[in-house]
Design goal:
The chain is α+β, with helices and mostly antiparallel strands. It has one domain: Gcn5-related N-acetyltransferase (GNAT) (Aminopeptidase, 3-Layer(aba) Sandwich). It contains 8 helices and 9 strands. Strands 7-8-6-5-4-3-2-1-9 form a 9-stranded mixed sheet, with helices on both faces. The protein is globular and about 40 Å long. The two termini are 32 Å apart. The model has no long low-confidence stretch (mean pLDDT 90).
Amino acid sequence: AMKINQDVVLRGKKVTLVPYTFAHVPRYHEWMQSEELQRLTASEPLSLEQEYEMQRSWRDDADKCTFIVLDSERWPEQSEENSMVGDVNLFLTNAEDPTVGEIEIMIAEPNCRGRGFGKEATLLMMAYGVRKLGITKFEAKIGQENEASICMFKKLHFKEVAVNSIFQEVTLRLDVSDQERQWLLEQTNHVEEKSYAELKQPAGVLDT
């Protein structure tokens, strides 16, 4: 199952990715009450109980990998819930081809948009997918009106491959050639990978 990342922290310059845990659900649920986010993520509002269910399925399903995006400036000085800015997901939806990953990024906090958080979080997740999950092809499906997101993926070398006028959705794709792989690893060579359990332990606890 996709518990591969349950102890993984990826710390970049602007953002830090941590596993999606029970403690993140209330804030996440609060975000998803926003009609704008529901529209941008094409999702239905859930009850808090359903959101906890979802969090469990995210953790246990073999075809999903998800991280909560924290603001690196705030965390770990502030609590994770106060540092949350969004989430990033990778779905392994193609049963025939496990090397295809569909990537989704959401920067939910309006004051954190347009500051490069989404870009770095996406790069961190892509590099993780390439290194740890054997992904060689990425897809992103984005609502046609979400121009900022489409533009960001194009900057990350994705090409538009299809437009679905019924769902009003654009599909972008990136095949990870050797050259692209090298570029991706260079873009993320500042990232530190740490143990979530150890970071959550207050100093001194590990000595016992």
